[in-house]
Design brief:
By secondary structure, the chain is an alpha/beta fold. Helices cover 29% and strands 20% of the residues. It folds into two domains: 26-123, Alpha-Beta Plaits; 143-395, Rossmann fold.
Length: 396
């Protein structure tokens, strides 16, 4: 097949703990110290400007009484002063001491805290950010091929969100749940075909659904394959379509199987429904899509032309190949080829509105986690349309 376009994922949200007390220099991490390190704060009210950071030698312009007190504490408790910092909000000086020769550090701290000359005494603790580190790249070997000219744009997207916590119902064929890039990404699988079920071999051999799933949520940083655009999203694999031939990507559905899958997705209260398929106007399918929209579920669907099943539904996100059709919120995709997962653990290039729809669904997942404060469904949809069209223009 042809060369790919561009796109992918990565998220990262850092929550920094606030260190309200005092801070030692980077060389004073506990893991690097042969002896325990403690912090001792003592009162100091001063009006003379001081050096903002770093250890202050004996001639440092601290109050003479403070200097004498710190020396007294060093002598009385057998401490070695190795750093210090004036903490202006607390009107206190924080001294950093190395402790040697004390069998019971907790007892030493207890005694220091009872000393009326001391405001506070404690161990030097280590603080860590409570989140995934921000990568400069992925170790997935096809990442640069997947998005050959836009890896930085994708990484930038993932600095803000990776779709964590977003549940996406992919109503499609089955998908390869054992694929190395999809393992663990699919939280629920169900077939709505009377002669097939989720435990059958064919479910995992279906090509179209596997490709859709890979574009949305392939696992990142597993040293294989590709990276999904919303790699932290959770997929519900709802099989309503079947392949026309066992080894071909073409597949078909009917009103009944689609209705059952849509009904199940609504009951499951998913966040997004992906419909990478097209068809004629269908009252039952349209009613269920409208019900999903009324329940606050975002629906992203392929649109091939006028007079299809999306025509009478307002609020749906319709994905087209360069042509807009009213009245839906339309997103134009110019990308031609998409590298994604294929059944049997491999990778291949795919094209068409189906793949573009999956890409937009993943972008919606990223935007949804950034729009929690905006509870207006209409506002979210408008933001999605504007942002996605702008983003697609950058990365395709």
């Amino acid at each position: 097949m042809n060369k790919p376009g561009a796109f992918i994922v990565l998220f990262l949200m850092l929550v920094m703990p606030l260190l309200v007390s005092c801070q030692a220099s980077p060389t004073l991490q506990m893991s690097q110290q042969a002896a325990p390190v403690i912090l001792v704060t003592v009162p100091e009210t001063r009006t003379i400007p001081v050096i903002k950071r770093g250890f202050h030698p004996s001639n440092y312009d601290m109050a003479q009484t403070t200097y004498q007190l710190l020396e007294q504490l060093s002598s009385e408790y057998r401490l070695t002063r190795i750093d210090g910092w004036y903490i202006e909000p607390l009107k206190a000086y924080c001294a950093v001491y190395s402790v040697k020769g004390h069998a019971d550090i907790n007892q030493l701290l207890s005694i220091l805290n009872q000393d009326n000359r001391v405001d506070l005494a404690q161990l030097m603790n280590t603080f860590e950010v409570q989140a995934m580190p921000s990568p400069s790249s992925y170790n997935d070997p096809y990442f640069d091929v997947q998005y050959p000219h836009h890896t930085q744009e994708v990484l930038s997207l993932h600095q803000k969100s990776t779709g964590k916590g977003v549940r996406i119902a992919v109503i499609d064929t089955g998908m390869d749940r054992q694929h190395p890039d999809l393992s663990g990404q699919i939280v629920l699988a169900k077939s709505f075909l009377s002669d097939d079920n989720a435990s059958s071999r064919q479910f995992d051999h279906d090509i179209h659904g596997t490709a859709i799933a890979g574009i949305i949520a392939s696992r990142p940083n597993n040293a294989i394959g590709i990276v999904g655009l919303a790699p932290s999203a959770s997929l519900l694999a709802l099989k309503a379509c079947w392949q026309t031939h066992s080894r071909e990507i073409t597949a078909i559905c009917n009103s009944f199987t689609l209705a059952k899958a849509l009904s199940f997705a609504i009951v499951q209260s998913v966040d997004i429904i992906n419909l990478s398929l097209t068809g004629p106007r269908d009252p039952l399918v349209s009613l269920l899509i409208q019900k999903a929209l009324d329940n606050g579920i975002i629906v992203v669907a392929s649109k091939a032309g006028e007079n299809d099943y999306l025509e009478t539904i307002d609020g749906i996100i319709a994905v087209t190949n360069g042509t807009e059709y009213a009245p839906q919120l339309s997103v134009n995709s110019l990308q031609q080829d998409y590298l994604s997962t294929t059944a049997g653990g491999g990778y291949d290039y795919f094209r068409g509105a189906s793949m573009a729809t999956a890409q937009v669904t993943a972008l919606v997942a990223l935007l949804k986690t950034q729009s929690e404060a905006d509870v207006s469904y209409g506002n979210i949809l408008r933001k999605v349309q504007q942002t996605i069209n702008n983003q697609l223009a950058r990365i395709q």
